[in-house]
Specification:
316 residues, alpha/beta, TIM Barrel, eight-stranded parallel β-barrel, 8 strands, globular, binds glyceraldehyde-3-phosphate, binds 1,3-dihydroxyacetonephosphate, binds zinc ion
């Protein structure tokens, strides 16, 4: 059942975080639904601009609608990840999305607010929630000094003003994570101090953590042993998820880790079976491995075994 993102946030706030997982194809979609049901967790499906153009946006919509029928017990929201203004309007008009993210974080503060406000007005008119972003995520390189790196983090006082003026429903904050498989190259971890200051100024307001893949070292090792070349890949310690959830993080975005599962399964499969040219055997293994990965992640997020409680809330 597709539910509102806001309802999921209300159920989760301060207790656990909802996993927001990006999908691009059928195998990810199947594994995602199976893993969430195996672990009895509500979840958010994220669709990026890139995913919408990989095949066709309507294909993804069709896949998700079909998965909803194949897995009728699932409770989930559908979200546009890192949208620009035009894509946000397209998703709002489609009537399919529960929420959209407008990412104008690269703009100056006032322009970011103005763009977000326009999207909020259009989305709220249709009952759709809006995630915005303040601060700049990105890899922290060794040659960048701490003060320069800190300058990219979300300013708590600005966060309060941003939310008030833009009217957004949730806020993606930069607290030290970055997208992709090469995080914390400057050796820093998550800035819980920043999160705490933001929560003080925005009590009860849902925060979002992007760039939250853990990049498991065992996964990286297996990929490299099977012919890959991911040197120095590292990610977020998943044991920090529950602490972040207590500080108001209700949505945790994970994409890279799923791509690593895909890469490991396919590299190992074709190394072990060089004679194979059928896509289904590795596809079958991937769907199950992806489901296992999702279930494990939900246990780290604290969302596992909350499905029935969330269902009752959503059905009221
Ligand atoms: O934050 C970005 C997500 O990982 C989506 O990546 O734009 O390559 O689909 P993508
Ligand atoms: P990762 O690259 O760490 O998986 O982050 C994904 C993300 O933030 C999607 O918006
Ligand atoms: Zn992101």
């Amino acid at each position: 059942m597709i539910v509102s993102t806001k309802e999921l946030f209300k159920a989760a706030y301060g207790k656990f975080a909802i996993g927001a997982y990006n999908i691009n194809n059928l195998e990810q979609c199947m594994g995602l639904f199976k893993g969430n049901l195996d672990s009895q967790a509500p979840f958010i499906i994220q669709i990026s601009k890139g995913a919408r153009s990989y095949t066709h946006k309507t294909m993804l919509e069709g896949l998700i609608r079909s998965a909803d029928k194949v897995f009728p017990e699932a409770i989930f929201a559908v979200h546009l990840d890192h949208g620009d203004e035009e894509t946000c309007y397209d998703c709002i008009e489609s009537g399919f999305y529960s929420s959209v993210m407008i990412d104008a974080s690269h703009e100056d503060f006032d322009t970011n607010i103005a763009i977000t406000r326009r999207v909020v007005d259009a989305a709220h008119a249709k009952g759709i929630a809006v995630e915005a972003e303040l601060g700049q995520l990105g890899g922290v390189e060794e040659h960048v000094s701490v003060s320069e790196a800190d300058a990219k983090l979300t300013d708590p006082e600005q966060a309060r003003e941003f939310v008030e003026r833009s009217g957004c429903d949730s806020l993606a904050c930069a607290i030290g994570t970055s997208h992709g498989a090469f995080k914390f190259s400057g050796g820093q971890g998550l800035h819980f101090d920043v999160l705490e200051e933001i929560q003080k100024r925005l009590p009860g307001f849902p925060l979002v953590m992007h760039g939250s893949s853990s990049v498991p070292q065992e996964e990286v090792k297996r990929i490299n042993q099977a012919g890959g070349s991911l040197k120095g890949a590292k990610g977020v310690d998943a044991d920090q998820f529950k602490g972040a959830a207590r500080l108001g993080v209700t949505k945790i975005n994970i994409d890279t880790d799923g791509r690593l599962v895909w890469t490991r399964v396919h590299r190992e499969h074709f190394l072990e079976h060089p004679e194979n040219f059928d896509l289904r055997p590795p596809g079958k293994v991937f769907m199950q491995e992806y489901a296992n990965f999702i279930a494990d992640k939900n246990r780290k997020l604290g969302s596992a075994n909350t499905l029935e409680e969330v269902r009752k809330r959503c059905q009221k």
